Amino acid sequence: MIDGSDDVVKVAVGTLAEINEQAGRLHADGVRCRVVGDDLTAGLGTMIPGSVELWVLAADADRAAAVLSGEFDAPDRPPFPHPTSDPKPDRSDGPHHFPTRHRPSN
After folding, report:
1. Phi-psi region for residue 94, left (φ > 0), alpha (ψ -120 to 50) or beta?
2. Residues 4-22 pLDDT 10s
3. 5-9 long-range contacts, Cβ below 8 Å, gap at least 24?
4. CATH number of the domain located at residue range(s) 8-69 in this protein
5. Under 8 Å between Cβ of 16 and 46
6. What are the extents of the domains in the chain?
7. For residue range 43-101, what is the model confidence (pLDDT) as tens digits?
8. 42 three-state secondary structure
């Protein structure tokens, strides 16, 4: 039985740079997508208009269109968490650059 769950639709056409940016927005929102035609850019160049397409599952087409039109914004979150470091050692009693002297000074 065919249920149509694997049907795909084209939601955008453009240059490689444009489609990669749009695919990133869809991925950030959790919409699975596929860039088609990017292998053609190796021989023909990356700025040919309409040479690269963006496809999504038919079930996700409405959500993808809303994300790409700006009607639905993904939550503001960085793609990767910012690194954190250990707290710096307490140097409030002065610098500790030199080891303690082992001979008394006169």
Report:
1. left
2. 567 989 999 888 888 899 9
3. 5/57, 5/59, 6/57, 7/57, 7/58, 8/34, 8/55, 8/56, 8/57, 8/58, 9/55, 9/56, 9/57, 9/58, 9/61
4. 3.30.70
5. yes
6. 8-69
7. 656 556 677 889 999 999 999 998 888 776 555 555 666 677 777 777 667 666 666 66
8. helix
* Amino acid residing at 78: P
Write the DSSP assignment of 45-93 as a string of letters.
-S--TT-EEEEEEGGGHHHHHHHHHTSSPPP---SSPPP--PPPPP-TT
Instruction: For 44, list phi and psi in degrees, rounded to 5.
Output: -105, -10
Q: Cα Rg for the chain, rounded, in angstroms?
A: 27
To 10 degrees, the CA torsion angle through 51, 56, 57, 60? -150
Cβ atoms of 58 and 9 closer than 8 Å? yes
